[in-house]
Amino acid sequence: MKDVLAIASFALVVAALTWGLIxxxxxxTFVMMALYATLLAQAWNILGGFGGQMSxxxxxxxxxxAYAQAAAQLHWGLNAWxxxxxxxxxxxxxxxxxxxLSFRYGLKGSYFAxxxxxxxxxxxxxxxxxxxxxxxxxxxxxxxxxxxNLQFASRKGYIGLLLGFVVAALAVTAxxxxxxxxxxxxxxxxxxxxxxxxxxxxxRTKLGxxxxxxxxxxxxxxxxxxxxxxxxxxxxFGAHVSxxxxxxxxxxxxxxxxxxxxxxxxxxxxxxxxxxxxxxLPGISLVIYGVVLILIVMFLPRGIAGLAARWTRR
Amino acid sequence: xxxxxxxxxxxxxxxxxxxxxxxxxxxxxxxxxxALIGPNxxxxxxxxxxxxxxxxxxxxxVHFDGRDITGRAPHLNARAGMTRTFQIVQPFAQQTVxxxxxVGAHLRIAGRAAALAAAEQVAAQVGLDTRLDxxxxxxxxxxxxxxxxxxxxATRPRLLLLDEVLAGLNPQEVAEMIPVVRAIAAGGVxxxxxxxxxxxxxxxxxxxxxxxxxxxxxxxxxxxxTSDDRVIEAYLGHGTAARLKAAAA
Lengths: 314, 249
Known about the structure:
The complex is a heterodimer of chains A (314) and B (249).
Chain A: H1 2-21, H2 25-50, H3 59-74, H4 80-104, H5 109-129, E1 139-140, H6 155-177, H7 180-190, H8 192-197, H9 202-228, E2 230-231, H10 233-237, H11 239-252, H12 259-278, H13 284-299, H14 303-313
Antiparallel strand pairs in A: 1-2
Chain B: E1 6-15, E2 18-28, E3 33-37, H1 44-52, E4 59-64, E5 67-68, H2 74-80, E6 82-84, H3 97-105, H4 112-126, H5 141-154, E7 159-163, H6 171-186, E8 190-194, H7 198-204, E9 207-212, E10 215-220, H8 222-226, H9 229-236, H10 240-248
Helix pairs in contact in B: 3-4, 3-5, 4-5
């Protein structure tokens, strides 16, 4: 109940900012990109934070969602809303596939991280060399502004869409904290053998988590394509998205409800500020992410949310 | 006579050149409180791992409740009613005591509230009811042993495999734990315990198997096995039994 209220207040605040207080394009873009970063972080948190399966290659789900969104419209003439459903489904399916392969053989820790990284690279190279994805040129969506096409004249439309996904991801996360599936997922994270001994099927549990995590990440990819109307292999499957998702979740606090939201907001603010300060120095945001990650891991291993919890307990 | 709840036949496993368990056969009848003892490195924990499905034997079979479960995954065995604990306690450190036990309760109970309530009941059974909201990581060794037991108990097992739940406890804590184990057995759960604390074995077990160097060397009541020459020699070294007898004569 407390979580439901908190999520509802969060949605109200974002809605009030978007449809009431903020008028500038810059401000709306900030809200939109912060929500997008939140969605990525929250999606990663389901598998990495609650499941303890650290993925370094969440771009594989992001890119799958993005390409599915673009290709379904361009190649098959599908409506953008239907394509969105397809994109989420495709990313979740890729999650099931990668999860079945790696968890079946008991890959854990750094091995799992490396395998996800490898999958993202394989998908990137595949996207570079296949006609279906437009090769290195990528895919471009034609401009056709209308809500039916999922193309909005104002950022506000996209903010509404992203807010819907973020609220759904928050709701799933809140459910993880008070459900049998969530209890089992955290048990597998904390001690897989002990969990098995008391009747938890680790394979099924981890597969459920990677499917949820992949689906939400795919949604972020699909929305990305609708916003920027362009996707290429580097954007879709490159390291940037994977890093953004995991750093925001770790900085904010893994395995918490609000940590990834905080982390995404802090990091997005930082990278926006530095972009303004240092001009268009390419890749500066990744440098910032790296520095922040090192500081957090050294001094706040439980993230910003961990710090907040320590304060409230006093 | 009723069929045994757990039946092992010629169970063997080797790790490289080390034959950890060799040709072990035993029948455990339902409703028994039995113990598995033996010197360090005898293969007791390995035998538990073979029974519960954490290891697959090189040869031999495990039957639980009349079914062949050789090499079946541990979570399926837990579902069927066989739950083990670990000698090295393995709490879900980031979660509270209540949440830890609830994971076990969830095996039979889908609802979160019901599972948490069941966890409270089980906690009371093992004497953890004052620590329900503590993080598991904050428990003492004795507390963790109780938690290990509680989590397993919450799965409502028919057969409980306890791997040294008394090891590392002081005499006071052992004395507190013995009635807990006895109450579990009295509640209808068949218990097989690996134990080094002989005082507990003598007090609790109705039947004892002795494992040495991977083989069963003796079985019987606690009094019988502790006076068995082979058992004395396994613990104290070759020729000791004769010397002890000579000294007593």
